[in-house]
Amino acid sequence: MLRTGLAAGLALPLAACTRRGNDAGPAVRVAAASPTPERTAATPAVASPTAARTPTPTPTPTATPPPPPPTPATIEFRPSPVGNGEATLLTVRATERRGQIRFLGQTVPLRQQGEILWAILGVPIDAAPGPRSAEVTLLDANGATSQRVTATVTVATLERPIDYLEVTEEVQSILTPQAAALEEQLRTKEFAAFDPAARWEKPFIRPVAGDISTQFGSGRSVNGGPVGGFHSGADIANDAGTPIVAAGPGRVAFVEAHPIRGISVIIDHGAGVKSGYHHLEAALVMPEETVEAGTLIGRMGTTGYSTGPHLHWEVTVYGVNVDPVTWTQTTFRP
To answer: Which of 43, 64, 119, 195 has its CA 20 to 30 A from that of 301?
Structure first.
């Protein structure tokens, strides 16, 4: 039948043809291939136009104007000239509010009061006469040096009397090298620091009634010997036990016995100024007490290197002894 169909030229559909292999396995159908879709050519991407950026102009820095130059300082001494063994008030008028001054080998701070700066300077009793320079260094708000100014004050020699002492062998035996060394140690401690703020606004008062038996700065001759050294304070004589008061307001800095100056009270008045009360029979205040002018602080005695009851009264400026009597006549404040 197959042959007959082929001979007759009949065309059979492909799907109807069945091939049988030699192994008589299952028939395998061959499906017609699906037509491959026609590829569409890719359309090239067109970039969107980007708006051009306008550059940001760099700001021009504003120049900081330089600070104005400091106003030149003006300096004044009162008194001027100043005597040896005396104090002088230095005032500085300037735009700066801080500074320091170097004078006769010491550097001390300037204090502000209103529109001025000031300091008290002490001239040693043995200072040579003649002009002396004071170098003022002024500081700006940052602590940097803004200007240096040099001023000159004349040191004048003041005539001082000579004190002739008659001292017993017992009293004189107190003046040993060991006593002098201990006294110096105590003095170094007592003048190592100073309260900054000035507490006085008026002249000092005399701390005790009595006569001045030995003036400040007097030369000394002991038992007829040569004149040597200078008296470091003013001696006021009176009876033992006479009340002694503070010469001005301040803080009691030290109460202690010295081998030479005896029982002592030292008051810090601020701004480098201290007063000392020596040879006391008894001290009636304690360290760190606050006192006013006229506050009872002790009683007159004759302790230490002393020939009789008296007060040895001292005033010092940054450790430099000056005439205390002058402080009862002058305020030494701006």
So the answer is: 195
CA distance 295 to 297: 6
Nearest 10 degrees: Cα torsion 9, 13, 19, 25: -150
Tell me the average pLDDT across 196-200. Answer: 97
In this structure, the answer to whether residues 167 and 151 fall within a common structural domain is: no
* 190 and 143 together in one domain: no
Query: With the C-alpha atoms ordered 232, 233, 239, 245, is the resulting torsion angle positive or negative?
Result: negative
DSSP helix/strand/coil, 162: strand
pLDDT average, residue stretch 18-38: 39
Residue 38 lies in a domain: no
Structure tokens at 95: 């735009």
Q: Which of 37-46, 66-75, 105-114, 255-264 shows the lowest mean pLDDT across its residues?
A: 37-46
Indicate whether 333 belongs to any domain: no
Q: Burial code of 21-52, b = ≥16 C-beta within 10 A, e = fewer? A: eeeeeeeeeeeeeeeeeeeeeeeeeeeeeeee
Residue 37, pLDDT score: 44
Q: Within this chain, do residues 176 and 120 fall inside the same structural domain, yes or no?
A: no
Angle at 257 between CA 254 and CA 258, to 5 degrees: 105
- Contact (CB, 8 A) for 279 and 115: no
- Give me Rg for the CA atoms of the chain: 51
φ, ψ of residue 213 in degrees (nearest 5):
-90, -25
Residues 273 and 182 in one domain: yes
Answer yes or no: are the C-beta atoms of 89 and 97 closer than 8 Å.
no
> Do 145 and 170 lie in a common domain?
no
Domain range spanning residue 197?
Answer: 162-328
Tell me: do 120 and 211 sit in the same domain.
no
Residue 220's contacts (CB-CB under 8 Å, 6 or more residues apart) are 162, 163, 165, 227, 228, 229, 230, 231
The whole model's pTM is what?
0.79
Tell me: do 144 and 215 sit in the same domain: no
The helix (H) or strand (E) run that includes residue 170 is helix 169-172
> Which of 156, 189, 217 is the C-terminal boundary of a domain?
156
